[in-house]
Amino acid sequence: MIFRLGIFAVLIAALAAVVMFGYSILNQGHKAAPVAVAPVTEEILVAAVPLPGGSLIQPNEISSASMSIAAVPAGAIEDTPQNRSSLTGAMVKAPLAQGAMITTDGVIHPGDHGFLAAVLEPGMRAVTVAVDSVTGADGLIWPGDRVDVLLTQNIAGAPDAKSIAAEVVLSDVRVIATGSELIKDASSANANTSQPPASTVTLEVTQEQAARCLVAVNLGKLSLIVHSAQNTKSAASAPALPVYAGQVSPALSAAQPTQQPVTTVNVISADNSGEFKF
């Protein structure tokens, strides 16, 4: 009897051990799989298109790429609105392939010492003109764009049909910088303070073009006309002839007689008489 009880106790102990072992295996199978921790990344600025050395960066030429924070090299520029804005108009020192990282040491910004000297082609000059939000294309002109400079002026003493004239004074010149400085003169103290400040646009010109531009500033109002991105220098045509008010408004031309009236006066003297036309 005692022997049987011993065997029964051993069987119960073995069964308990098997149950505990099975429960342990089952519990391990239900353990949650370890969650993979994604590496921490940062968005950095890269070239959206190939950028030649010496070119001026425009907004659509900037893109971003993700990079592990641990792998981000010194000089990389984080993708923020402020950093994108600061790169607009900056000059690329060396060529950048599409997707290449833009670094702080790889660009020179407008306002940095030596920027104008670095960005100007040999023999060229920089001239700055003031434009308002309308004549400056409402802020849509960027460094690197090519523009014509149009002069509009009132001609004192001219007949109505020629009282206002517009003409191109500079053709196909490159914009190298834009700004938002107020151009102050002797009358600025009495100016309407509600008007926004004029923007300044700096153009790359020859010495003769700089002189023409400075004369035009004193003749009338300057406006900028943006060239198509597909234009080439070889496509530049001869300077356009002036356009007068009468060519734009037929009403002004119609107001002027096509032929000046002829006035006749008869002059009579004791010796002779005759007809004189004036």
What does this structure look like?
It is a single chain. This protein is α+β, with helices and mostly antiparallel strands and 278 residues long. 23% of the residues lie in helices and 27% in strands. A hairpin with a 4-residue loop joins strand 11 and strand 12. The longest helix is centred in the N-terminal third of the chain and has 28 residues. The chain is elongated, with a radius of gyration of 39 Å. About 5% of the residues have low confidence.
Brief descriptors of the model:
12 strands, 6 helices, alpha+beta, 278 residues, 6-stranded antiparallel sheet
Compute the gyration radius: what is it? 39 Å
Contiguous uncertain segments of 5+ residues: 181-195
Query: Averaged pLDDT, please?
Result: 77
Helix proportion of residues, in percent? Answer: 10-25%
Quote the beta fraction: 25-35%
Which shape, going by the Cα principal axes? elongated
Amino-to-carboxy terminus distance: 160 Å
Number of domains: 2
Tally of individual helices? 6
The biggest sheet, with number of strands, parallel, antiparallel or mixed sense and barrel status, is: 6 strands, antiparallel
Strand runs, count? 12
Secondary-structure-based class equals: alpha+beta
Order of secondary-structure elements: HEEHEEHEEEEHEEHHEE
